[in-house]
Design brief:
2 helices; globular; 4-stranded mixed beta sheet; alpha/beta; 2,3-Dihydroxybiphenyl 1,2-Dioxygenase, domain 1; 21% helix; single chain
């Protein structure tokens, strides 16, 4: 089981509108913005996802081959998260749809945040 996730950001405060919108579409909320960190988690739980500057003081950059997948509530929440990502400075890495195309049980969208971090939002039937 994963305990928590950190996502590097070039500017944490500038990243919060993106994460507020995208994670909000799947039932997360911002729990805090303090000390250069933003914490997010499900509405009824503690923060488990943190947006922060890298510890080494170097600029954040997207990891090559690293991706975080967030579970959405349903296909509509995947669609909403994807639309929010593109509306808030994110970029497309794979539009919402079944994966593989003939699947009836796995629906996902892939995107990058403004720093270049790749992530997915998915729903399972």
């Amino acid at each position: 089981m994963i305990g928590y996730v950190t996502i590097g950001a070039l500017d944490v405060e500038a990243a919060t509108p993106f994460y507020d919108a995208v994670l909000g579409a799947i039932g997360y909320e911002r729990k805090f913005l303090d000390g250069g960190w933003a914490g997010y988690g499900p509405r009824d739980a503690e923060a488990n996802t943190f947006v922060c500057p890298p510890e080494n003081g170097r600029p954040a950059q997207g990891g090559n081959g690293i991706m975080i997948a967030f579970k959405g509530v349903d296909n509509a929440s995947v669609d909403a998260a994807y639309a929010a990502a593109l509306a808030h400075g994110g970029s497309d890495e794979g539009a919402p749809g079944p994966r593989p195309p003939e699947s009836t049980s796995f629906y996902a969208a892939y995107m990058r945040d403004p720093t270049g971090n790749k992530f997915a939002v998915f729903a399972k039937a």
